[in-house]
Specification:
With about 110 residues, the chain is α+β, with helices and mostly antiparallel strands. Helices cover about 20% and strands about 30% of the residues. The protein has a five-stranded mixed beta sheet with strand order 1-4-5-3-2, covered by helices on one side.
Length: about 110
């Protein structure tokens, strides 16, 4: 993965200071992510977001402490925050068990 810019940071952030920001540019129709959360850096890389900039701790080949990514408009989908996990009724669960041949015959 080619990085456009590499910078060196002299301080590490505490968990309380780490954050991820998403920004949408309507003219370019692109999403931008600026993050110092290691879990999000890994996820954005694996999902194929383009790495714009990296910040390394101490020296240019030190551990990554922050990164900026970009992605096309279709990369982010805003969903309903109130939708919880679906809860099935007992009748529905019984119907699903009866329809599945592995669970219908019981355990061996």
């Amino acid at each position: 993965m080619e990085v456009n810019d590499i910078s060196v940071c002299t301080t590490k952030l505490t968990l309380g200071e780490q954050e991820t920001l998403l920004r949408y540019d309507a003219i370019e129709k692109k999403w931008y992510a600026d993050t110092t959360v290691q879990k999000h850096i890994t996820k954005l890389r694996k999902q194929g977001w383009h790495l714009e900039d990296e910040c390394h701790y101490g020296m240019p080949d030190g551990p990554v402490t922050g990164a900026r990514f970009s992605a096309p408009e279709r990369a982010v989908s805003i969903r309903n925050a109130n939708t919880g996990k679906r809860v099935l009724s007992e009748a529905h669960m019984a119907a699903l068990r009866a329809a599945n041949p592995r669970t219908a015959r019981g355990s061996c």
